[in-house]
Write a structure and sequence with these properties.
By secondary structure, the chain is α/β, with parallel strands linked by helices. Helices cover 37% and strands 14% of the residues. It has a five-stranded mixed β-sheet with strand order 2-1-3-5-4, with helices on both faces. The chain binds zinc ion (2 copies).
């Protein structure tokens, strides 16, 4: 009788351990739904402290395409200057092997996110996934290369190989300046600029490029997403900034 009870207890214990292990390790129980929305959906959640008081940024890079420390420092400075996150902004970086899928279409990048992303919104912390890819966008041409794409509410890809090529073939421009320009520009899209989740206060949308700003040299000018034209406008190795109209939109949506 005693032995039978012991056995039952042992079996129950095993089941209990089994369950708690699953809860921690089974990806199926992580609620990813809040991070699978359309671009611009989390604009307010990212810039204000109403729902989320901190941001966790997960940068996953293919070996050889790690962003520079200066790039990471610049990103944190930019985010702190435009958002209200009293509990802080944390950035983690992690190397992964090549997917061997370059050049990429955005569906391939989305699948890589499914495979590699580990950080999702939890409690009052919002998570952002950034993938530094070892290749280019498959739609690149000789005159137009895409440097980055925000493809969901908290997801972006940075075409690391394209950025390295540009930086290596341009005099007097640091790779970190190019990386920072592209990262800040893509965060502008996650922040809902221009009129893509953050309501435009006065008309400054580029009539030829949805989601971009018509003000020359604003960070959200369409030219900063593309390689060929970008190098013509980065003067003195300086990262472009948001103009007053874009900042005004962020202010109206709870940011700064
Ligand atoms: Zn853009
Ligand atoms: Zn602007």
């Amino acid at each position: 009788m005693k032995n039978k009870n012991s056995l039952l207890f042992f079996v129950l214990l095993l089941i209990f351990i089994g369950c708690s292990k699953d809860d921690v390790n089974d990806p199926a129980v992580i609620d990813k739904s809040a991070n699978l929305k359309a671009l611009g959906f989390s604009a307010n959640e990212l810039v204000s402290d109403e729902k989320f008081t901190s941001i966790k940024i997960e940068i996953v890079y293919v070996t050889g395409f790690e962003p520079t420390q200066t790039t990471l420092d610049n990103l944190k400075t930019f985010l702190e200057s435009r958002t209200f996150k009293p509990d802080g902004i944390s950035i983690t970086t992690r190397a992964v092997p090549s997917s061997n899928k370059a050049p990429f279409d955005i569906n391939e990048i989305a699948q890589i996110e499914v495979d590699e992303r580990t950080a999702y919104n939890v409690g009052d912390e919002i998570a952002v996934f950034i993938y530094f890819a070892d290749g280019s966008n498959e739609k690149d041409t000789n005159t137009k290369t895409v440097l980055g794409t925000s493809f969901r509410n908290t997801s972006m890809v940075i075409y690391g190989k394209t950025i390295q090529f540009l930086a290596n073939h341009t005099n007097n421009v640091e790779r970190s300046t190019v990386e920072s320009t592209v990262l800040n520009h893509e965060f502008g899209h996650l922040f809902g600029l221009v009129d893509m989740g953050t309501t435009m206060q006065t008309n400054h949308e580029d009539s030829e490029s949805k989601g971009h700003c018509s003000v020359t040299n604003c960070l959200m000018a369409a030219s900063f997403q593309f390689g060929g034209s970008m190098m013509n406008v980065i003067d003195n190795n300086t990262i472009p900034v948001l103009d007053d109209l874009c900042i005004g939109d962020l202010l109206a949506n709870g940011g700064r």
